[in-house]
Amino acid sequence: MRKLQVLGLLALLPLLGAASVLRTSDPVLEAGTPSAALTRALDTIEADEISADLHFLASDEMRGRDTPSQEQRIAARYIAARLERLGWKPGAQDGWFWDYELPTSSLDTESSFLRAERGGESLELQVGVDYAFHPRSMSESETLAEAVVFAGELTEDEVEGLDLEGRWVLCRSSADVGYRKISRTIREHDAEGVIVLSGSDVDGEAMQVRVASWGAQVLEPRLTRGRSNRRAPAFLYMSDGGARKLLGLAGLEEPKLGDVLEVSLHEKRSVTKDATAGLENVIGIWPGRDEELSKELIILSAHYDHVGTDDQGEVFNGADDNGSGTVGLLAVAESLAAYGPMRRSVMLIWVSGEEKGLLGSKAWTQDPYLPGGLKPVLNINIDMIGRNAPDSLLVTPTKEHDAYNGLTRLAESLAPEEGFPQLGDADAYWGRSDHANFSRNMEIPVAFLFSDIHEDYHKITDTPDKVDCDKVRRVARLVVRMLHGLQTDALDL
Ligand SMILES: [Zn+2]
């Protein structure tokens, strides 16, 4: 699930009624078409096998499957090996991996600088030694300031009496004042930029490591996003050495709240856009058996990337997001191998770049490779399907949504068979995962199954032990039931 940078969204989400009782069902006695193939297929889906896959893909060693990263490529090969073993057919031009390119940018340290002047004196601070940018403010820019106001630790009390509008602000960081709080305060007060005195832990060497990791491969979308938003304030960190030089020039070694450093600043960030990163979606096809209907392609999707590691190297395991959907699709792959060919053809696509802005699904849906002229007819997307109450599952589009369709109706009718008495409302997530691109770019009916966000969402605590693998099992079974229900002569979508 792609993170939305909106505060308070969590609070707006309706809570699901969770009082309903989990229903046990016998697949042989299910409502709808009884079929030996379906029963066989459903029986292959087991929670302990799902757990085994998940504990590999969301392990610390996979380092958060960032886009792009070596570990992401390993995850892709794990998926491909499974498909191959199960007898699936590769779904890209040259095999299992559908490649797309993403322009990347890097920081040009030679032509980036921070120059400070006072009277006739000036000094040039060196990026990576004296100062660094926060990566979120890494858009190309050039800013000037006439003076800098010292605002303590930017607490509300401290900021209250200060006029920061259009000015640069100098502040000290403390344990509970991070990037978010600082940038919010800076925006609220319409300040031009902020210089954070990071404290003695950020020496020159640590700063260089930081800049190298931020600057080496800054993905284009991050830059574009920075530009398209309201202009991000300049956000700089000072090393101890850089701070000493700047405060020395100002003649204010120990600034007090409200002190104004009478220095002018000229800051320039320069970015080179040249390299491209090769990224992969993993695609398998399960060819249909009906002479006519096999030309129609049912697409199931899940993103297999997550957000990597934090500045300290802590791993975002992304077990629910979206390890759960990734292994859920693997379970579907095994299930169809037991089912045998369906009347229609089925494609499983594991996309990358979701967390960076739905990039993998965007690239594919804008320029899909469709072997043998297969015609996409629908998409079912699963993203985060293993947390929260065992009997709660959300769907979008609901009947309140313009795009409400036969896929949602089918999911609603089959969900009780798998212990989800009633599907909740995920319409607030219509644009937040890959189904959005299938709907927008291919104009096919889509449905998105999702078990809602939770306290570990996009945190290092989204670990495999917290995922309800029995729930993942039941969602995978629901998807297989839907596939089975989507083999009628005409589709009611
Ligand atoms: Zn996510």
Identify the quaternary structure here: single chain
Find the count of extended strands (DSSP E, 2+ residues): 20
Bound small molecules, by name, code or SMILES, are: zinc ion
**Intertermini distance:** 25 Å
Number of helices: 14
The portion of residues forming beta strands comes to 15-25%
The main β sheet shows up as:
10 strands, mixed
Q: What would you call the structural class?
A: alpha/beta
Low-confidence stretches: 6-32, 215-230
Our Rg estimate from Cα atoms comes to 26 Å
What's the average pLDDT?
A: 86
Helix fraction bin: 25-40%
**Overall geometric form:** elongated
Fold and architecture overview:
With 493 residues, the chain is an alpha/beta fold. The protein contains 14 helices and 20 strands. It has helices at residues 9-12, 36-43, 47-57, 70-86, 156-160, 179-188, 204-215, 220-228, 240-250, 319-339, 359-366, 406-414, 435-442, 469-485, and strands at 89-90, 97-107, 113-118, 121-125, 131-133, 141-145, 148-150, 168-172, 193-197, 218-219, 234-238, 260-261, 264-269, 271-286, 296-303, 345-351, 375-382, 393-396, 423-425, 446-450. The strands form three sheets. Strands 1, 2, 10, 14, 15, 16, 17, 18, 19 and 20 form a ten-stranded mixed beta sheet that branches. It has a six-stranded mixed beta sheet with strand order 5-11-9-8-7-12, with helices on both faces. The chain is elongated, with a radius of gyration of 26 Å. Residues 6-32 and 215-230 have low confidence and may be disordered. Zinc ion (ZN) binds at residues 1-3, 321, 355, 458.
